[in-house]
Amino acid sequence: MTTNGKPQDMPGVFICLYGPSKAGKTVASAAAAPNGVFIGKDSGLLSARKFLGIEKLNTRPASLVPDATAQIKELLNKAKRPLPPIVIDDFSLMVEATINEYESSKGRSGMWSALTRDVLEIRDQARNLTDQGSIVIFNCHEQPPRTSSGRFVRGGPSLPGQLPEKFSGMVDVIGRAVFEATAAPWKYQLCFEPQPDYVCGDRLGVFPGMSPLNLAEGLRFAGYPIPYPPGLEWVPPVVEKLSTKILEDGIENWPLLMQRAFEALRAEHPVPHVRWAVQDALHRAILVHHQNVGITQSFSLPSTEEELFA
What is the value of pTM for the model shown? Predict the structure, then answer.
């Protein structure tokens, strides 16, 4: 049985994406949770609305970490089961705002202990959500490897002190957005393979070591039937048909096939929705190709096709 796009017997999953600003993390999260609850600042979702053509997203305001935790607790207490996906957007900025608030209200002596308590509490509440079957996604900025209090801390989500390691310890899937000039149609990929200096990993065992920045297709590949918004019922059969055709023709020959599909579809549908469909088709083909041959590849995007996705 499927409700809210997710079978009731599927386990919840705790996900964290981190990387540079403007890498596409929010767009990827919105595509993976169009029926979800977005906790954070509504202005941060403008890119997702524009790029994906989503008119309505269920947003709940939160500027500080305790505000977001309160929203999660309310969902746990009042929301109908099964719970919808939950996205904590721009969590690193939320932590920065909390630091600034605590520096004024608690002083330097009390701010760090209070912040650590709050970050670990929202982490634990996120795990409570996944125990109830929810998909939970945190988006963070990236910070490089460093030393904190004499201890080496791997690069990862932009959090102070040793919190990147403590926070990431409970995460099921943690991906680092990495710029790749030949990646297409997005110029970023997600790194899930183990890194000596950065926190990465995939307990689902679904994503390639270097994967398209397409969280939704990875979750679908794992068995989660991530839905599209109402009005996009035409998209799933197009994605399946086009991805199958890409694999049949040879994945290295995808540019011409996608160009033809894009031109045909945009005569009937809005460009953001068409872009969404053809990207999912390509990324689905890449994930299937990886599973079949056990390798990952980057595919260059000719400038003529690149203009189609601008």
Answer: 0.89
